[in-house]
Amino acid sequence: MVTVTVGGLPGTGTSTLCGVLQERTGLRYVYAGRIFRDEARRRGMDLAAFGALCQQDPSVDQALDDRQVALLREGDVLLEGRLSGWLAHRDRVHALKVWVVCEEPERVRRLVDRDGGSVAEQAERAAERERSEADRYRRYYGIDLADLAPYDLVLDSTHRLPGDLADEVLAALESHKVATVQAEPGDAATTRTAPTESS
Fold it and tell me: Is the pTM of this model over 0.90?
C-alpha cells in the first residue's frame, strides 16, 4: 500500500508536483484544498469567509480533517494538503510525508501568473491567508507549520523543475517502502531524508 502526502504554502508548486507524481505512479490523487473549497461553496461562502468560520468553529475544521484521515487510512493515495503530513504523523498512518518550500518572491510571482492581480495584491492576500491558517493550526492543533520535523522529505522548488522534484520523491518512496516492510510489527516505520542543499 502506497500513501504519499505533499504539502506547502501557496505558490510552492505542490499541485504541479502532484500532477507529475500522479502521472508517474497512477496513484489516486486527492487535493485537500478542493474539499475545503467544496465545503465553502456548499455553505455559500467565499474562501475568506469560510476560513474565518473555521477559526471560530473548530468542529468545521475537525470534520474536514476526519475526511483526510479516512483517505489516508484507506491508503494507495496521493494526498495534497498543508496539514495532510501532520495528520498522518499525528494519527500514525504510514506515509511518505513531503513538504515543499519556495522563496517568497517566486511564490508570489507564481500566484500572480496563476490568479492574476498585482504582486502587491497577491503578497497581501497570501500573507493574510497564511496568518489565518497559522493561527488556526496553532490554536486547534498546537501545530507550527514552520516545524518540519514530521516530514520525511523537504524540497525547495524555487529553482528546480517539477520533474526533478518528482524524481526525488519517487526515490524516497522506494526507500520508505523498504523501511516499512523491514519494520517489526507494531513499529512506526518512517524514513527521514535530509533536505536538498537548496532547501
Answer: no
